[in-house]
Amino acid sequence: MVWASWTTPGVFAGRGGARTDEAGVVTGDLTVHTTWDGNVADVTVQYTGTSEWFTVTGSPVPCHSERQSRNLHQAVVAAVRAGGGATVDQGLVRETT
Question: I need a labelling partner for 72 at 20 to 30 A (CA). Which of 50, 56, 61, 81 fits?
Fold first, then answer.
């Protein structure tokens, strides 16, 4: 079984925050977490320091390599920092940075 995960705490969401399936738009100090199971990447966020995770709208997305999933994680972190109701989409998946 192949898998990997990344967690980035202290991501301050830009104006408009990140859009989630469960809680709508979340703003403020967030933690972004990505888990890759070898086929798809699941991206979630939480208010930093809390225990409840929310699925970022558009997640999961197909990712065919660990590198793609790592790049996706970094792209979502950047999108959350930019705000504007950040979501996950297939366009964020790429092989190289």
Answer: 50
**Which runs of consecutive H residues, i.e. helices, occur in 1-97?**
66-82
Q: What 3-state DSSP class applies to 62?
A: strand
State pLDDT tens for residues 17-66. 999 999 999 999 999 999 999 999 999 999 999 999 999 999 999 999 99
The phi-psi region of residue 85 (left if phi > 0; otherwise alpha if psi is between -120 and 50; otherwise beta) is left
Whether the full predicted model's pTM is greater than 0.90, yes or no, is yes
Closest CA to 33 of 68, 57, 62, 6: 6
Q: How far apart are CA 79 and CA 34, in angstroms?
A: 14
The dihedral built from the CA positions of residue 48, 53, 57 and 60, taken in this order, carries a sign that is positive
